[in-house]
Amino acid sequence: RFEMVGVGADKQFALDAVAFAAQPTISKDYRNVFHRKVKARDMLKTSKTFVINRSTFEFGPLLVGRQRPDDKPHTEHSEQLHITNNGPFPLTVNFSFLHGGAGLCSALPALHAADADAGSKPQSTQSQRPPSANGGGYASAAAPASLRPSGEPVFSMSIATMELQPEETQDLLLCAYPDADGLYEEQLVCTIKDNPQPVLFPLSAIGSSPAMEVSATSVEFERLLLKRSDTKRVTLTSKSALPLTWAISEESLAELIGAGAEAGDQDFRLDQTSGTLRPGDSTDIRITFFAREAQTVEKSFTIEVSDANAELGVQQTLDVSLKAEAYSIDVDVAWPNPDVDGLDFGAFKVVDAQKTSMELINNGKYDVGFRFIMRKYPVRDILTISPAEGTLPPGGSREAVEVVLKTEHELTLTSNTDLRVQFTEILTGEVLQDLVMPVKLSAHAVFSRYAVVPRGINFGPLVYDSQKERTFDLTNTGEFEFKFSLRHMDDEPASDKPPPPPPPTKGGKGAAAAANAKETGGVVNLENFAVSPARGVVEPGGTTTITVRFSAGASAQSFSQTMAIDVADRSPDDDPLGLLYELLAESCIPGVATTDYAQIFEEQAVVSRGDFGVTGLPQNIFAEEEKVFCFGSHMVGQEVTERFKVVNPFKVPCTVNLRCVVQGGGGGGGGGGKGGKGVTAADPSAGLSFDIEPKKCVIPPHEHRYVTAFFLPQSMQIYRAVFEAEVELGTDASTKMLCFELLGEGTLPNLVVQQPLARTDDGKPLLQFPRLLVNWTARLPIQLFNGGILPATFTLSPPADSAFACASAGQKLTLDPKTSHTLQVLFKPTGAGEIRSSMELAVMNNSFEDACIELEGEGFVQDVAFEDMPDDADGEALKLGEVEVGASSSLSFTMRNHSDVPHRFAWPSLPGVTFSPSVGHIHAHAAKQVVVTFCSDKPVVHSAVEVKLSLQRIQYAPGAETDWDDTMKVVKWLSDAEFKAHNEKLRRAEEAAAAEAVAAAAAAA
Asked: Do both 843 and 898 map to the same domain?
């Protein structure tokens, strides 16, 4: 706050001073600087993206050793940064790197490949080579020295200086070309002139060379007997952050399998020799050794690793050595089945023990000791071997060995080698490990297997005293036949032991057939259920159909029983109490809903009590207290239909007979309608006005059917009948029959002319219009009233004379009961004189209500008349409406001279209202359009103000018959004095006209 004091004065003055200080600056918002942004992402999966949680722009993995082109850098190695001047001043910004572009290089965590199947990995040792610079793979001994950081700049930029105007944006091209493996971190330093605070943008790039790891550098195969093969697996894992390619060198591959070797002559075979790996991925090379002859084989092969496009050539080599041996022995085994290499016990039931044998043969010169080894479950617990050990004499001698298999559980062995034969040298006791022989065991022990479809039977509801049969299938899904039996779930199961064989009798085969017949058949009775057969035998893959018969009771009742199905030789854990099988059924009595009136009359109204007065019956209602359905009052001879809903709320279908019974007295009129079909009455010859369709229907359980009731009144009277819906086989009185009364009335429509009130001498309605100028229009109403109880449909014929018109004439209109309707009739005379016409009122379905309405009017003419008045004009009254002060509103009409003499006309002045033209001539039989404009510069109100047009007959001098009005202008040049005098004259004339108009209005009021 500064103060200044004037010299020689005591007054002080206070001045406020405000200043703003700012520095040149550029935008540091990553959303403006960088094209792509993510909140968080794996560093190895990022490519040219700003990672928000690390606040770093990351190029991601880049290939080491790639040279930057002179013209355009590689797309994956370059990115545009948007540099924006968001300050108020022009600026100069210099770009540099904090570490000179070389950045800080550090190792990355190792890549993790997907774990391979541990059981298929070779058991040799892993390579012990040191990790590469990226901390991921295993470097080859042949890795080039260029993989170590050179210290040269890794990051570069397109320009070092940039000048920016306020709000200007320019792009800065950044490039990154790592020269070694590892994470390079750098910072782009943006130094702004006149701003001591530089702007830093952290940058990073990952240099990655093709690097791969091999799971084993040495693969050793176990000794193999001749004519056998073995397969080992070597896993290759990518330790590079970029895709790479690998291939076995052609020289080592030719040395391994032999150049041009025939199929089957190779010692080794590889399933793949080249491929591509993504970062962290693994692949397996399956190496198969073939024992063709007794020998020891030692070979190796070399794996060459390159980048994905082989742009930089071979970057790594890996050597894998192979060692295998094939041999022959003089000890042999003779299997019981020459076609099976091992012991195959086949398939059998768990409860049965199996026995087989094999022979050990010594073709050598000396004794050989043998011993059977069983070290693992389940072989150790299920096999009994005799003898389990001994000595084999030389010279081709044979030793028989018996093997017994006994198990208590289901078992499947497929070429199991847990049983081995171990041979020893008798004199020294040395175990010959190379002669240990596995014995392949195959066995399949099973329990009885079965399936039941369906797993239960529900007969559902049945009509009382009826029967129904259902079946289910018992299928043998096992490999052996089994016996089955049925029983109540609470009964004791039958013994699985077969009965003792009967004493031999004469009859041979017939006796055996009789014994087999006893194993099948029988019936099991469970309350109202009968199941057969109660026992039987099912072959493997076969199916037995079991029939269940249910006999419904005499009353409504539910039945539920559970039986047990016992299958012989099944697993003790599989349905130990037998397979429980549920049987359900229900006995029902058919019927329909008789008291649910809301459903029965869902398309009509249901009231507790009806009001059937003398003024007309209510339409389409059901009165619960009276049990009466009322059709209402309807036109005589017109058929009415209503639908009723017959509901079956029970679980069994029902057959319903429907009929309509006419009550005595108050019967219908003459014939017609449906001819009385399906109706019972005391007088069969009497015509009936009620009918029902259909006469019979079948309603499924919990469904409904709609029946249609027809009402056709023959005369003006009340009709009554009884609706009956009777259920066949229904025994319950409350649901056997649906019964209620039908009520309807026949009547005719009624229509009365309330306006006009005037009548002619013969009593016809008379619509009399006032005298009208020719081509003027007047409207009068015709009001009709429906005093009946039915809607009345009518038509009004058009007037014969064109001077009368009615918009509704010729249309078919409907008038509801106790309502009125007004029609407008227009009168527009086209000539002078009285005009008469008439309109015929015709009421449909009741010709007694037809009427003729007489129309009278008179037209006259005058010398000058107004025509083409606005639509909202009332006679000769113009409605200019409400207008804002200073705004204007205009209307137009036509002034026509009907005489043979020309007239002079003049319109008086009214404040705010002008007529154009206001003065002029109108020739004989000519017309002139007049525009009325309402515009005032102050508030003014005109309500029913009468403006009188002044007319004078005139006669033109010969040859001077020229049209004229004050809208026609003649230019006359005036001096200033003449112009002022002219304006003053006009002003006085307007004031006089206004005063005259006000006086005329006051006199009229």
From this structure: no
Structure tokens at 323: 């060692």
Tens digit of each residue's pLDDT (9 = 90 or more) over 43-100: 888 889 999 999 999 999 999 988 888 888 998 899 999 999 999 999 999 999 999 8
Closest to 730 in 3D by CA, of 659, 653, 800: 653
pLDDT tens, 93-127? Answer: 999 999 988 889 888 765 543 333 333 333 333 33
Range of the domain at 56: 30-102+149-208
- 874 plus 725 within the same structural domain: no
Both tokens of 976, joined, read 């200033």
CA distances in angstroms from 141 to 298, 316, 643, 971, listed in the order given: 22, 8, 97, 115
Residues 196 and 162 in one domain: yes
Q: Which of 694, 712, 747 is the last residue of a domain?
A: 747
Residues 708, 629 share a domain? yes
Kindly report whether the peptide bond that precedes residue 378 is cis, defined as omega within 30 degrees of 0: yes
Is residue 434 a contact partner of residue 426, using CB atoms and an 8 Å limit?
A: no
Query: Residue 971: what pLDDT?
Result: 76
Find the DSSP H helices in 631-765.
Answer: 733-736
| 331-334 β-sheet, strand order | 331-334, 354-362, 397-405, 383-386
Rounded mean pLDDT of the chain?
Answer: 82
Task: Count how many Cα atoms sit within 13 Å of the Cα of residue 319 in the half-sphere of its side chain.
Answer: 8
Q: How many whole angstroms separate alpha carbon 337 and alpha carbon 417?
A: 17
Q: Are 642 and 721 in contact (CB under 8 A)?
A: no
DSSP 8-state secondary structure symbol assigned to residue 109: P
Strand partners, 858: 771, 834
Residues 77 and 197 in one domain: yes
- pLDDT classification of 172: cutoffs 50, 70, 90: very high
Q: Report how far residue 195's alpha carbon sits from residue 674's, in angstroms, rounded to the nearest whole number.
A: 107
Specify whether 478 is located in the same domain as 554.
Answer: yes
C-beta atoms surrounding 713 within 10 Å: 26
Give the pLDDT score at 986. 83
Distance CA 719, CA 743 (A): 6
The answer to whether 584 and 457 have CB atoms below 8 angstroms apart is: yes
Q: Give backbone dihedrals phi and psi of 715, rounded to 5 degrees, phi first.
A: -155, 175
Asked if omega into 765 is within 30° of 0 (cis), the reply is no
- pLDDT value of position 196: 92
Show which of 567, 588, 609 is a domain's final residue.
588
pLDDT range class, residue 162, cuts 50, 70, 90? very high
- Rounded CA-CA distance 381/379 in Å is 6
pLDDT range class, residue 678, cuts 50, 70, 90: very low
Q: Identify the pLDDT of residue 573.
A: 85
514: region left, alpha or beta (phi > 0 left; psi from -120 to 50 alpha): alpha
How far is the C-alpha of 629 from the C-alpha of 792, rounded, in Å? Answer: 24
> Tell me, what's the pLDDT at 205?
93
Say how far apart CA 749 and CA 733 lie, in whole Å: 44
Q: How far is CA 999 from CA 736, 876, 946, 1002, in A?
A: 95, 22, 12, 5
Residues 463 and 360 in one domain: no
Q: Summarize the confidence of residues 858-865 as an average pLDDT.
A: 79
Enter the tokens of residue 382. Answer: 């299920």
| Distance between CA atoms of residues 169 and 536, nearest Å | 94
Q: 3-class DSSP state for residue 562?
A: strand
Flag whether pLDDT at 483 surpasses 70.
yes
Instruction: Please state, in angstroms and rounded to a whole number, the distance separating the CA atoms of residues 155 and 68.
Output: 11
Nearest in space to 707 (alpha carbons), one of 690, 729, 728 = 690
* Interatomic CA distance for residues 385 and 401, integer angstroms: 7
Distance CA 905, CA 917 (A): 9
Q: Contact, 627 vs 740, CB < 8 A? A: yes
Give the pLDDT score at 876. Answer: 66
Q: How far apart are CA 95 and CA 79, in angstroms?
A: 15
* DSSP code for 123: -
Q: Report yes or no on 897 lying in a domain.
A: yes
